[in-house]
Amino acid sequence: MTSPNAVKRPFIRARIFRQILSHANISPVKQKQILKDEGLVIEDLNDYSADIPLNSYMRMFERLSRVTHSPAFGLKTSKVMGPELIGAVGFIFLSSPNLEAAIEYYSKSVSTIQEVTQLIFERERQPTLKYVITDERITPRRQDVEFSIGYVNSLLRTYIGKDYRPKEIYFEHAKPVKGDLYEIHFDCPVFFEQDINAIVLNPEDLKKGSAKFDQNLIPLLEHYLQLLEHNTQRTTTFVENIEQILPHAIEYNNANLSYVSGRLGLTEITVRRRLKDEGTSFRELLQKKRIAISRRLLTETKMNVLQIAQKLGYSETASFTRAFRKETGQTPIKFRKAHLSK
Description:
This protein has 16 helices and seven strands. The chain is α+β, with helices and mostly antiparallel strands. The model is unreliable at 1-5 (pLDDT under 50).
């Protein structure tokens, strides 16, 4: 059995995969083999508070899709999961006074369940819940993304009731062969090859309440979560803090030192000095993050090189190609062809 202290980070709560595995309907022999290939055993999933490496979780999730011959395995599995999957967070969600409060709480607590992951709640133009994995090394991720978007959508439906339906659903990855399945599942338009993985909500739903609202239950569950957060806290480096901000900065064309310094509440001079102390620079971090994102987009989407260059904030395709070749030794096109030939 893996020692909890020996789990490689970033991690995810083992109970999440335990529930997913139990719904795969595969033989115990196949279950053991999937776990064994990641250096795990079934006992690693039985401790409610245990963790497993997030990379292993992603690979095992994709493998379950292949073993069950179900390309939409993650999406279908999300439909049968209830609030108990995420423990106290799920029950606080259902016990919140209105949907807006429920979403705000969940978005603040998601990192206690799965590291390097954000559920960003935006309300500037239209209420949108974005699912973001900030570490680009965590791949492949299609099954996890579809499961996560599907699961959050199920929580929203459980909270509001049968009248709930999202306005739109966005996925970064390419449209699957059976794309119509997704619109049936979500009961709304679903768009693929988008800039984000997200659920777009109807504004009027945010103030709707739940019949399960219990103001006496929330303090007890919040106390439990505070203890949980204390036990899972780890010291992050200054570089890691910036790496968490960069995906959002790149997406909104704010990938500059001024924006990142503002998010950190520090001056640009201080950020430069602290990065220098850790042996790097803002320019170097930004370049590495852009290339990491581009590698994933080249392998997981059908976006062309121009689209990827524009998404990442390059002024022209040539500058993106030069930066990519410098980092990887290949042009973006050759990198994609090499991946597809595997």
